[in-house]
């Protein structure tokens, strides 16, 4: 289930915590499993749980609690737009609407070609750069006015 | 002690108490949902908010420690406002249809809502809908919209059952109690979550909608299953047992019961219930009247005694029989001139008989387990054999006690073990001997004679060290140790270990009346036949009380052969059990524990008498009455009891809480190391839901994962050695019998062993539970 | 870079965006001299360090403004066994983005502050919990940690003092509640981020049940400044009872949203000016001065405030995390509140009843009003629900969700009433749309 490469990365995370506290690495381990698979499948969660010696349900509690885990398959590019108030004041909501129109999908939907998933996000700690967008949980894009959004989508074509 | 005041009443409470504890002490009621005295504090429901002098906001009583001079107001305006506010929040998303809820009438939310809720809801929005879940045959999660997120069920799993099967997934108001991807809840203690759930979210699947709580009368009883003797409340409607719940007894079962105890009542109403006596006439069993049946039995027994001598008759009871039944059974057998009576039907080694100082027992009180510093359990499928005993050890290990286990499979007891040794059955005594030798060295004693050739392994050493440290220790022998062919060795070794370490020695005992059988003297005379021998050396007549031999004996193959050749087989049984139609000559319908009065003596020697909770079904009669009348018909002296109490008083002093004569001392067993037997060895567990005739007939329990038909389980390298593929069909042979099973790889099974369960129809043709066995591709 | 300006800066002195974050740059700016001073130079005792921090009146920059020195003194230093210091970089309070910049541009200041804190409180291990959405910040911090380890500032026998300290980064994954300190601890322990009931407080029962102190990123970053410059200098940089400078994250309807470092006590108007003034020259309608959880203040009141804990508190709000959300006249206050209420409903951890049920109820009502489905008694109902939430939850999220509702309704009641009565907004939709500046339209 987990590739040797993933396990190596997980081991590096485990080493950050006291030896009897392997469970502390669960968040990182789930993120690694998600990266490996593109989403976090039940099998992935269970593999991580077993690796860290936790009950699968305890791992599932974690996986379902934090927003950035995708418990269902998502498109190749998951775009999360912050629409919270500070961003909204500077176009966050508009950016979301713009993307919905461009991609022809609503929040929490994936384009038919499986390329894009659109999500509404909560504050990303980047309100000064609004509108902001996060691509695949990793890449933060700032000042996403229409031209920038068009450019980003073009990059993914 | 701290001086505080609750609602104006002064009180003294121990330091470290919470306001909730203090309120309980002074008898003030504070409403609550998430708080439960046996679970960790979550403080999430917020129902217990009370006012504390000088505190600006209301405080949760369950989580707030008392401080000296604290003044608490549980019903002040601030407190009641807070409680009302919380109640409103709890109800906004809760269905308000108590009349159709299964929990109606016994719902804590309903009870409190009546006191706090306002009549009209201010909540005008759509209510949350939570999908139902299927988590197996016992616990119903049909109505999850009713859940109030108190997390009692989750904490129960984590803390008491030792396995987190339920969790609260998601967050915010979408939080949901569920299992991992819809798996079933398999814990042997799962039913307690139903009791813990304060609302109608978790309910009993077998009971659901079969009665309303106010239609049920509640009667006290005692569990007839394992040796703990859990106290029960049995709920009855009409003349039918509808539900079984724990009756709190901190000294015994605390507030828990196992699923076996909770759900086996379904067997009471099984279609296999025997409702009229039957006699074999022209080869077939026919229903007859009681007097005909008893006359027949009496004549036949007397005939055998006259023709072949009393010793041609043997009687076998069961450790699930009552004290009264076992007493009358042995009395009747002896009256017929036979000393061959026993109740230890899953035993193999009886060589300790005659060397015991008294009645074997647990060696300590159940309530003393929590104070142990170290405990060693030898030979046990702990969780499945003794769910609540295992639970107590789990709590011990969580606290500070060190619990170790030496057994024949590496099953996870869900206890944080200090040491675990898993060995083949024929190595069990050697493994224990290793600990004995290590302990002797630690205590600077010479190596006990016979153990010189042994080198203790590191784990034995660690176990010995933990037993030598601390103040309170116990070494207890489980079912496997008693069933083992090395039982006497194990007993003697454990006694030596107890002596060396200053620990206590005990037996958990396999059933409700394991201690009681000794007290009732349902034991063979020195020259007579024990439970194994009475089938090994076939008799002319057998009287079986509450036994289904092909499932309940150490060697069913041998038992069935003996019964088939006998001239007379009389069975006193609540069930018309299919296999018996082959060999039984007389079936006498006796009452299960709910239909008779009687007594069980639990593992700590506690005398627990109970009354019937319903009338016997059909023409079934309490076993003690049947035996008494049979005694009369046989013309035996001393069979004129008026009541079961009279029978009991003949054995235990009236009103005694514990039986006397308890002792685990053993004398005259020399230690010897056992050589490896060679060949494949069988490991036979008694699966939890096949362990006795009643539980076998509970439909719901039979649908659980634990009740799946047995397979042949071997570790991967043993499988490879035998050239058998995982998942393939194998022929398993012992003596003349065989079974066709699926081979499964299982790393918890030691090398050179095959795990093949006993007590199941598919393996009833096999022989000894722990003998050599043959496995080949089918 | 989003640190756009400063007035008498301390924390941001010498920063040069992405260019000067490395250890070498930090050392050039005088970095790690505080650590050397504490451990080697002056060989300060634990009490000395805590004393200086106390005297500086450094108040926690994470939201509650609790005096840091006092918090440190609660740690049972003599307690044998593990103790922890934890840095709260879970910055998720809407409007706040200062910790991100501190960690990106000056990570070693946080590391140095944490080592000193570890020494002062007898902790040998620390964790920095970093907000999930800012992956680059996490990577940056990991890199900085590697530099510090290589230079011997982390690990065994730091600067030859015999003091050992290890520090690790823990990456969050999208849960605002993990900013609450005990939820954060649960999260590091590998569980759902559900706050714990207090007492016991982290100082006695923290990470893995061990004594633990949690401070905000900016709080730790201020520690080296205080050690180096002295307590008095730090205190005097701000105003009485409000020591030092602070980073303010200005967002919303201003021309130059970004972080600004100013002395505590600086007038709001100065900050607004630094942020380029109101976008399009429009009028200030309202301002949330301390992150979304702090009560909103009408523009007029705000203009009279100075930016410090006491002044803002007197005006009826809180300085909180220093996130200044500026709203002009294009803002529909109902819609603004609706978005905030959605946030708290969404981010409630779900464990305690008043918050789980209450935040959802609040959102549903505000949403209804916004959608033109409001009812006459809704405003009173909102008030009553917030009363039933506040002070009755396990953590402060319940209060945080309630205060915006109370303050929005209090200060802008007419606008809510208009919405309910006319089933539409007082501010026309195209005006609202134009306010965001997303589409090139002007008002
Ligand atoms: C719901 C909630 C969210 C919080 N979020 C943060 C946060 O993102 N960052 C932070 O430093 N403190 C946050 N806090 C405050 C912390 O609980 C804690 O008080 C703070 O980290 C202490 O550090 P300080 O004393 O240095 O301010 C939050 C509190 C609550 C109740
Ligand atoms: S107030 Fe909300 S976030 Fe805080 S513990 Fe309660 S449910 Fe969780
Ligand atoms: S009983 Fe105290 S909060 Fe639930």
- What is the CA-based Rg of chain B, rounded? 28 Å
The number of helical elements of chain C comes to 19
**Alpha-carbon distance between the two ends of chain B:** 71 Å
Query: What fraction of the residues of chain B are assigned to beta strands by DSSP?
Result: 15-25%
The unique ligands bound to this protein are:
flavin mononucleotide, iron/sulfur cluster, FE2/S2 (inorganic) cluster
Index terms:
heterotrimer; A: 157 residues; alpha+beta; 5-stranded mixed beta sheet; 7 helices; 46% helix; elongated; B: 778 residues; alpha/beta; 7-stranded mixed beta sheet; 19% strand; binds flavin mononucleotide; binds iron/sulfur cluster; binds FE2/S2 (inorganic) cluster
Tell me briefly what this model is.
The complex is a heterotrimer of chains A (157), B (778) and C (443). With 157 residues, chain A is of the alpha+beta class.
Description:
The complex is a heterotrimer of chains A (157), B (778) and C (443). Chain A is built from 7 helices and 5 strands, in the order H-H-H-H-E-H-H-E-E-E-E-H. Chain A has 157 residues and is an alpha+beta fold. Chain A has a 5-stranded mixed beta sheet, with helices on one face. Chain B is 27% helix and 19% strand. Chain B is globular. The mean pLDDT of chain B is 96. Chain C has 443 residues and is α/β, with parallel strands linked by helices. Chain C has a 6-stranded mixed beta sheet with strand order 1-7-6-12-9-10, sandwiched between helices. In chain C, a hairpin with a 5-residue loop joins strand 6 and strand 7 (258-263). The interface between A and C is large, with 56 and 63 residues. Residues 32-35, 43-48, 60, 62 of chain B line the site of FE2/S2 (inorganic) cluster (FES).
Topology:
The complex is a heterotrimer of chains A (157), B (778) and C (443).
Chain A: H1 4-14, H2 26-37, H3 42-52, H4 56-65, E1 77-82, H5 85-89, H6 92-103, E2 109-110, E3 116-121, E4 133-135, E5 139-141, H7 146-156
Parallel strand pairs in A: 1-3
Antiparallel strand pairs in A: 1-4, 2-3, 4-5
Chain B: E1 2-6, E2 9-13, H1 19-26, E3 49-52, E4 59-60, E5 71-73, H2 77-92, H3 108-116, E6 133-134, E7 139-141, H4 152-161, E8 166-169, E9 176-179, H5 192-196, E10 203-204, E11 217-222, E12 231-237, E13 240-246, H6 259-263, E14 278-281, E15 284-287, H7 290-308, E16 313-316, H8 323-335, E17 341-342, E18 374-378, H9 382-385, H10 387-399, E19 402-407, E20 417-422, H11 428-442, H12 458-468, E21 473-477, H13 479-483, H14 487-501, E22 504-507, H15 514-519, H16 533-536, E23 541-545, H17 549-552, H18 556-565, E24 568-573, H19 580-583, E25 586-589, E26 598-601, E27 607-610, H20 623-634, H21 644-651, E28 681-683, H22 699-702, E29 712-714, H23 716-722, E30 729-734, E31 737-745, E32 753-755, E33 774-777
Parallel strand pairs in B: 1-5, 16-17, 16-23, 18-19, 18-21, 19-20, 21-22, 23-24, 24-25, 28-32, 29-31
Antiparallel strand pairs in B: 1-2, 3-4, 3-5, 6-7, 7-10, 8-9, 11-12, 12-13, 14-15, 14-25, 26-27, 30-31, 30-33
Helix pairs in contact in B: 7-20, 8-20, 8-21, 11-12, 11-14
Chain C: E1 3-6, H1 23-28, H2 33-41, H3 46-55, H4 68-73, E2 84-89, H5 98-105, H6 107-121, E3 125-130, H7 135-150, E4 166-171, H8 181-188, E5 212-216, H9 217-229, H10 231-237, E6 245-252, E7 258-263, E8 266-267, H11 268-274, E9 284-288, E10 297-298, H12 299-303, E11 306-307, H13 309-314, E12 323-328, H14 333-347, H15 353-370, H16 378-389, H17 397-411, H18 413-422, H19 429-436
Parallel strand pairs in C: 1-7, 2-3, 2-5, 3-4, 6-12
Antiparallel strand pairs in C: 6-7, 8-11, 9-10, 9-12
Helix pairs in contact in C: 2-6, 2-9, 3-6, 5-6, 5-7, 6-9, 9-10, 14-15, 14-17, 15-16, 15-17, 16-17, 17-18
Iron/sulfur cluster is lined by residues 177, 194-195, 348-352, 355-356, 393-395, 397-398 of chain C.
